[in-house]
């Protein structure tokens, strides 16, 4: 844990730079679209943005909603709506919620258009920027909003390096920006959640530690899903014992018949991330008081 804290210390300088860039870009746009990961709606949000956005509409996309628990997603939408945001759930990869997003962009930018009209000026394309932590689906959202594949996607943090404007068919100009990291990253639980959803690389939060934390979380919160997925009659109470049980069930054995625990950990993580154990949200909306 202390090692992780040390490594996390490395990020603030990085963050300050990203923050300045976003501040400058925010001046160019009418609305902000912040992409969250619906599995961690609190940890994947950047609290600094709130002040930076000012009066501009701030859309919060609970993306990857297909992997999150539906009841939790509903609770988060309600909470964020009551906090004054424009929240919406999406599954950008499956192109679900995109029509709703287009409607929300139009709706939230109406006051801006009305102000233009009041000054005798014509309606113009809405300018928006998409921000979010690494791997939350920013490029996929942009692709879903544009007729042709316009932004490069990839399932590892930090794929988008450059910056580009993307024109859409619905009178919207989008600015694609690189993902930014949560400044309260120094909080262990936040770092763990971000690591599980694939926003923090293994060099910052060692894989075996993330897998152990995830195993502990599943043992406490979803024992039934574990027993169903891996055909376990009893659920172990320790992560290492759980990896052994999973490894044995899946035949992950070395030549001497010893369970390959590390491979079992990789399997659990991959299957969790792929939604094979079910749909889970790591954070509860009513715990979100800051
Ligand atoms: N299941 C699911 N996967 C998604 C969804 N949206 C995006 N993905 C996947 O998540 C991965 C990351 O998506 P990207 O669009 O590249 O994410 P990004 O935020 O642009 O990532 P960086 O540019 O690296 O910061 C890809 O494998 C996508 O296919 C979604 O709604 N549901
Ligand atoms: Mg990207």
Describe how the helices and strands are arranged.
Blueprint: H1 2-8, H2 11-26, E1 31-37, H3 49-53, E2 58-63, H4 70-82, E3 86-89, H5 98-118, E4 126-132, H6 138-145, E5 164-167, E6 172-176, H7 188-196, H8 207-221, H9 223-230, H10 239-249, H11 261-273
Parallel strand pairs: 1-2, 1-4, 2-3, 4-6
Antiparallel strand pairs: 5-6
Helix pairs in contact: 8-10, 8-11, 10-11
The structure holds guanosine-5'-triphosphate and magnesium ion.
Question: What key attributes describe this structure?
Answer:
single chain, alpha/beta, Rossmann fold, Conserved Hypothetical Protein Ylqf, Chain: A, domain 2, 2 domains, six-stranded mixed sheet, 43% helix, elongated, binds guanosine-5'-triphosphate, binds magnesium ion
By CATH, the architecture of the largest domain is named 3-Layer(aba) Sandwich
Number of strands: 6
Main beta-sheet strand count, sense and barrel state: 6 strands, mixed
**Ligands (ions, cofactors included):** guanosine-5'-triphosphate, magnesium ion
Tell me the strand percentage band: 5-15%
- What is the total number of structural domains? 2
- Uncertain runs are none
Helix/strand-derived class? alpha/beta
CATH C-level class of the largest domain is Alpha Beta
Mean pLDDT: 87
Please bin the fraction of helical residues.
Answer: 40-55%
The N- and C-terminal alpha carbons lie at a distance of: 23 Å
Rg for CA atoms: 21 Å
